[in-house]
Amino acid sequence: MKKFVVPLALLLTLASNHALASTAEITLTGTLTPSACTPMLGNGGVVDYGHVSTGDLEDENATLYKLPAKQLSLTIQCASETSFALTTTDNRHESSGISPVSHGLGMHKQQQIGTMGIGLSTPELDGIPVNTLVSYNAGNTWFAGIFQYFAPSQKMPDNRVAFGDLNTPVPATRLSANLDINSFIYKALPANEDIQIDGSTTFNIVYL
Q: Which end of the chain is more exposed for a tag (fewer CB within 10 A), N or C?
């Protein structure tokens, strides 16, 4: 940018000393973009339960079975120190139920199959343990110690999850953490049919 300081100053001098002279204008445009960050999920982001009999599942309550808890590693690598937050988009939103933090597991003959809660544990920024922070107003204010599950953007569009010290996100080059997957199946599904679980969620990086 320093290359443009002298020409712009000279243009202003000419315009003031020769009020009737023709003038020209230089317009500079461009967009500054943050350092790129790349998310990576363990096992290619796939949680595979294989074949599960509902008779082997634990009761969660009167309407739900609980699938075994699963975990995936999450890593975000940035080219340089960057402040960022995470959001999720539920690709099976139509089957996600009423909870603001539930993601859907797809449909079976117009019936919702179940829901999935996506938690996060043991976050580290550049190898240092940090707090998981939550914002309910698109990053204007942050709170530590209250995070439980990601809220899909379709239900809570201003929800953000970040990482840092106390109540402030901290820039870093690398995040490492575990995603904790807790899934539930509706008991009202047909008991004599194979049912294909079809959950799909996209993680989005929001630069702060």
A: N
Domains and CATH numbers, the chain: 40-47+54-207 (2.60.40)
Taking a C-beta distance cutoff of 8 angstroms, is the pair 193, 110 a contact? Answer: no
Distance CA 208, CA 204 (A): 13
137-157, pLDDT tens digit by residue?
A: 999 999 998 999 999 999 999
How far apart, in Å, are the Cα atoms of 90 and each of 87, 138, 174? 10, 18, 25
Q: What is the pTM of this model?
A: 0.82
Q: How far apart are CA 105 and CA 120, in angstroms?
A: 19
Give me the residues paired with residue 123 across strands. none
CA angle at residue 123 from 122 to 126, to 5 degrees?
130
Asked if residues 14 and 26 have their Cβ atoms less than 8 Å apart, the reply is no
